[in-house]
Amino acid sequence: MNLVRTSRQVVGLRQALTLLQKATAGGGGGQTRHYHSLQGVYGHKHQEPKDFSLPEDVVQRRAEESNLFRWISAYREYGHLTADINPIKPNSRQVPELAPELYGLSSSASYNPRGLLAGCEGSYSLQQLQDILKEKYCGHIGVEFSYLPTLEEREWFANSVEGLSDEVITAEERVRLARDLLCSQAFDNFLATKFQSVKRYGAEGGESMLGFFTETFRKAAQEGVEQVVVGMAHRGRLNLLTGILQYPVTIMFQKMKGMPEFPSDVKFIGDVLSHLAISVDLEVGGPNPLYVSMLPNPSHLEAVNPVVCGKTRARQRTLGEGYYSSDPDARPGEKVVCLQVHGDAALSGQGVIQETLALSAVPHFNIGGALHVAINNQIGYTTPGERTRSTRYCTDVAKMCSMPVIHVNGDDPEAVVKAARLAVAYQRKFRRDIFVDILCWRRWGHNELDNPRFTNPSMYQTIDVRRSVPDSYTAQLVEEGVMQQEEVTKITAGHMTFLAEQFKLVDSTVPKAPHLEKQWAGLVQAPSSLQVWDTGLDTKTLQYLGAKSVEVPENFNVHKHLKKTHIEARLQKLAEGRSLDWATAEALAFSSLLYQGFNVRISGQDVGRGTFSQRHCMLVDQETDEMYIPLNHISEDQSGKLEVANSILSEEAVLGFEYGMSVESPKTLCIWEAQFGDFFNGAQIMIDTFVSGGEAKWLLQSSLTMVLPHGYDGAGPEHSSCHMERFLQNSSSSETAPDGEDVNWFIVNPTTPAQYFHALRRQMVRNYRKPIIIVGPKVLLRHPAATSTLEDMAPGTHFFPVIGDSSVNPSSVRKVVFVSGKHYYTLLGEREARGIKDTAIIRVESLCPFPTQEISEELQKYKQAKKFVWSQEEHRNMGPWFFVHPRFENLCSTKLEYAGRDVSAIPAAGVAQAHKVEAQELLNKTFAL
Question: Which residue blocks in 25-104 are alpha helix, DSSP H?
């Protein structure tokens, strides 16, 4: 029975709706996030949500027809459960929430859904309304949006979905769609004939994805988007590359024949066929060409997703859009959009997805919403979908951040096109992530050489008798008179002829290397020799920049402790030119790079303050919570900016994000600092597959700088070691020949603030980019002996790969101890305590590339030395020992003796007393040998 509302009740409902709208306008949880600072900081602006309210007549109608509206709302919320979205498994599910009787509606009555259901006015029978609702919510498209965080989004989504049936796909667009599908099918058929033993991960069964990509690119370009950054896994990748993104087919064929994808005059190792990538300008009907970049990716599923997000944000910064715009109302993603393509099993199974989604609205990581599409094969490798997840849909991870999902039947290419339009429209309006779940099927197994029928006979009995999607769709168009069969045959034959002609050119085609073009022009690949890079600066300039690093506005309320220990202490040290600590050297490196026009971005947990409360490059007003970054106010016309990105408690996604930013921008020093060195192990996939080998595989240069605090201080197994042995083992350094700067990455273990200063500046000063792992200090941050002077950073100074011992007489030295990092100060103190005069302590600051020449020069000084020792605080199976001793022997003709802890399964003792005993034994070994 319909409820009758009085005027007072209607007003009450309207007031309740208004309160709800205000509560949800700022995002999930009903809270408006201010990020402490209303004025914003570089890379982030606070933007108040716009007011939204329903028209009064709509509120009135919903009050008057509350039961009818509840039933319509049930279809909006539960309609997807009965939608015909699975092409190989009919949906027979009954959903009790959709029964009209549940809402007191009568089949004999008529209803007017004006204001309740978009596009419907006048009187309808209950059956007519049910048919309309089924068409809108239970057809080949099903949607999930009832949990969206704001009333505006929910209303917009409902109205948009209810208008999809009126969306027109013109005859011209239908023919173009058919052409995309037919060409994809022809490509797969050609490869199956010419390359029968090659794993190509074709698109058979999921060809409608090509329609999604074409429509997404076209719609985005029409909306003013200028660039799309794509991250994609294996399935259908080659079809997209050659079919839409204009990847040279001859180069693709060369790769399939085992030939290299890059010319012989560049240094590379290469990667497999399914990891290829391209950047291209597309004419897709927008006001300007659309620049589409597909990133290369490893076989680790979904690992590329945070990388494409980082690359997207870096491009937004380059274009000065969104949070990097001078316009306070500018929204992110105005010109650059991220598109992530997922596999269904990987989407629900890989934790990097959840970490990446958790970044989506975080300041300094927000890219204005990404477009996501799941190519849902309904099978992971050979495992059926219901056994690859604990949720109904593979896209349920989207609900973690209240992101809408559009499910669509992949056997209906036109429905896929409409889903693409809806997704782009939502992303453009709300700048939030949205998912499209294309439920399709896989003609073959995980690859074309696999037989999934061993474990999924019933599924493949259904698939084996299915007509292909391109054939079914073109048959429909022929039947409707949109196309002629001759035209269909001509398209397929023409593409097969084209492929055959390109195949003939394989042996005569020379591949290109596009890695040093556009913003990378002027840079080179690293040389095979070691060079000295002058990274020093004028003392007056350093004093000026150092003073600027702690200058705050007059009315800014600095914490009284920081005012004394951070600001006043730094100014005094700068004036005296000595006793400069680690944080001051870092500030001088940052500010000098900014002063020269480079950008610096540092991310990680609490990096603004620093894990050990040492940095304070982002100050907070103690009364207003306003944030202030002094280094962004060096001068009025400075072009270089410091972005301080305090991140979520994630390693894999955040490090991947920073790597993505670094491979986009050679003018930005991207730093990721772990709270403790061993935190990097949560990002091991990113390190092994991107950072370590990105240039060797894909010619991607990166300046990514990883700072990993390290040092055995009695803290126990965790947080003592950054496991530098893993990075050393994964380096391309040679045991038998001197290294050049063309190693895959640099690994340094600096012992002075000046060394840290030079290492950071060298990242940008040289004419190529390399990742660097900086084994960072903890106790050295405030160690009284670990300080530097301004003279150590003056013009002509540079990073020293090896630091000799100037405190001993070389002719009286009988033992030479080599050490790396913080352990040097322990040895120095012990030598002084024991009064030892015949032992030199040499610091190896650079581990990779290995400084063969500098070590040999140091060895030449000690003609009387009889013993040569390597001392480290790490265990024998950890730290640098395994790395340095063959190089000393093979390259420096010196056999080292080991002084350190014995082998262990864990980095450090968990009992304080045991740690002290080990530390003393270590010192005894070093000086007793």
Answer: 56-64, 66-78
- What is the chain's mean pLDDT, rounded? 93
Phi, psi of 41, deg, nearest 5: -130, 170
pLDDT at 382 (0 to 100): 81
User: Can you give the pLDDT at residue 5?
Assistant: 36
Q: What is the pLDDT of residue 2?
A: 36
Q: What is the largest CA-CA distance in the chain?
A: 110
pLDDT higher than 70, residue 29:
no
pLDDT band at 468 (very low <50, low <70, confident <90, very high): very high
Q: Give the span between the Cα atoms of 96 and 101, in whole angstroms.
A: 10
pLDDT digits (tens, 9 = 90+) for 890-903: 999 999 999 999 99
How many C-beta neighbours within 10 Å does residue 326 have?
6
Residues 634/551, Cβ–Cβ less than 8 Å:
no
pLDDT tens by residue, 636-661: 889 999 999 999 999 999 999 999 99
> Tokens at residue 908, please?
């450090």
- H-run or E-run covering 202: none
Three-class SS of residue 37?
coil
d(CA 786, CA 794): 18
Which residues have C-beta within 8 Å of that of residue 498, sequence separation ≥ 6?
A: 249
**What pLDDT shows up at residue 48?**
82
Dihedral pair phi/psi, residue 709, rounded to 5°: -55, 130
Residue with tokens 């602006």: 45
CB 694 within 8 A of CB 303: no
Single-letter code of the amino acid located at 612 = F
Distance, CA of 831 to CA of 92 (rounded, Å): 81
Nearest to 746 by CA among 718, 765, 769: 769
Give 380-438 as a 3 state SS string. Answer: ECCEEHHHCCCCCCHHHHHHHHCCCEEEEECCCHHHHHHHHHHHHHHHHHHCCCEEEEE
CA distance to 97, 417, 469, per residue, from 406 (Å): 20, 12, 20
Q: Contact at 8 Å (CB) between 778 and 552? A: no
- The DSSP letter of residue 552 is -
Q: CA torsion 552→554→560→562, rounded to 10°?
A: 10
Residue 180 token pair: 């995309």
pLDDT at 779: 94
φ and ψ at residue 694, rounded to 5 degrees: -60, -40
Distance CA 331, CA 362 (A): 14
Q: HSE, CB side, 13 Å, CA atoms: give it for residue 342.
A: 33
Q: How many whole angstroms separate alpha carbon 668 and alpha carbon 594? A: 10
User: Angle 104-109-110 (CA atoms, 0-180°, nearest 5)?
Assistant: 115
The predicted-structure confidence for 273-304, as pLDDT tens digits, reads as follows 889 999 999 999 888 899 999 999 999 989 99
Token pair 């709270």: residue? 675
The upper half-sphere exposure of residue 31, i.e. CA atoms within 13 Å in the direction of its Cβ, equals 4
Residue 279, number of CB atoms within 10 A of its CB: 16
Crossing angle of helices 485-504 and 249-256, rounded to 10°: 60
Helix (H, G, I), strand (E, B) or coil at 571: helix
